[in-house]
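Narrative summary of target 7.
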Amino acid sequence: MRIAIFADIHANREAFAACLAHAHDRGATPTILLGDYVGYGADPKWSVTTVMDLVYKGAIAVRGNHDDALANPRDTMNAQARAAIEWTRDELVAADRNRRRSPLRPFRCKLSECLALCRWRRRR
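Modeled conformation, tokenized:
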């Protein structure tokens, strides 16, 4: 059995899509996602949606500190990381204005202060 493990995606659509395709081509299943889906990269909405879709299909996702910072801003991040999270939050909210489901909602589940095992549910 091959297992696909992804970490530190940071909204890099091109790299994440290429890695997903590579894993798929090699028959890797199940999928484990180790956090930091957002931050720095230009396509946070695609990254969040892709991770949510993978979890709906059975993947396990752990929230990283950048993901957690969307819902729980923190002063412990450096200035560049804080700026990236603020930009990401604005992008996700702007992209979601015409939809009922907020992309920030998945990041609200929490098991501990720094790490969370997330299972998303679709809102109805």
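Residues 98-124 have pLDDT under 50 and may be disordered.
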